[in-house]
Write a structure and sequence with these properties.
Distance between the termini: 27 Å
Number of strands: 5
Structural class: alpha+beta
Radius of gyration: 24 Å
Number of helices: 11
Helix content: 40-55%
């Protein structure tokens, strides 16, 4: 399936429903729909659907991306009809169908996603995490929030979706616990260090080893996720969360080694990997 937009999460009577648009058509996470309308076995419920009414998509979860069953709009209606009280006015399936058709579907077709504004209470966990970050790392609040704005490409935390809020909290906690914090030095804070040629070569090789490690984690991440390993979330983080570090260190090392040429007969052969690196790449060769 192609042309998938950003996943949107919204609530139906306290139930979380994840939806996405594929080729401008709405699709729903099957388990969420089944839970909302009272179908206890989502896998069995999908058997009755036509092949074009169901599919599989990678969905972000706190432990990383996972393959989940999804259903089309037509498939969603078929699931509702499987409910005993599907046509009974006031029943849960009836209320769900009316709500989706009257509110959610028009919004998805218009914008490609369901716009669900978060509340002040929804954002309490994130504000608490930022308070901890400020306290532990000595940042000012504007800088702490700027990290979140940059990471999720938003102008304010009010622009975060319900799905992005727990991701943002996890991101801030990781900065606090693991020290994953990249700051740009102020313009007047310049430092001069002397490096031998051998030391510079070692830094380039260290970058190359880091690049290969990221590529290896990307290669095995899906297998660990399919196996249901409790390491899958950590492996996903190693595979994708440190791409910004790989890109920024590539830029720095290219700058400080620009006077050296690639030499296949010496340790400067590693410069070939450094200079051929595509900073826009998401999948990294290892």
């Amino acid at each position: 399936m192609s042309n998938q937009t950003q996943l949107s999460t919204f609530s139906f009577e306290s139930k979380s429903i994840r939806t996405l648009a594929i080729d401008n058509e709405p699709w729903f996470v099957a388990k969420d729909v089944c839970d909302a309308i009272g179908l206890t076995n989502s896998r069995m419920s999908l058997i009755a659907l036509d092949e074009d009414e169901k599919g599989v998509s990678l969905i972000y979860t706190p432990s990383g991306q996972q393959e989940m069953n999804i259903v089309s709009e037509s498939g969603m209606y078929t699931l509702i009809l499987r409910c005993r009280d599907a046509v009974k006015k006031g029943s849960v399936p009836h209320r769900f169908r009316k709500w989706v058709t009257a509110e959610v579907l028009p919004a998805i077709r218009k914008t490609g996603k369901y716009e669900s504004k978060t509340t002040v209470d929804d954002r309490t966990g994130l504000r608490n995490a930022v308070n901890m970050l400020v306290s532990k790392k000595g940042l000012i609040y504007s800088d702490a929030y700027h990290l979140i704005h940059q990471r999720f490409n938003v102008e304010s935390i009010e622009d975060l979706t319900l799905e992005q809020l727990p991701q943002a909290v996890e991101y801030v906690h990781r900065i606090v616990l693991e020290g994953e914090l990249i700051t740009t030095p102020k313009k007047d804070e310049c430092f001069n260090f002397e490096f031998t040629e051998h030391e510079l070569q070692q830094l380039v090789w260290l970058w190359f080893a880091f690049k290969r490690g990221v590529g290896t984690f990307q290669h095995i991440e899906k297998a660990f996720r399919v196996l249901g390993s409790n390491m899958s979330g950590q492996i996903y983080g190693q595979a994708y969360e440190y791409l910004s570090v790989l890109r920024s260190t590539n830029k720095i090392l290219n700058r400080i080694t620009k006077e050296f040429e690639i030499d296949p007969m010496t340790n400067w052969r590693a410069l070939e990997h450094l200079r051929q690196f595509d900073p826009k790449a998401v999948k990294i060769d290892f």
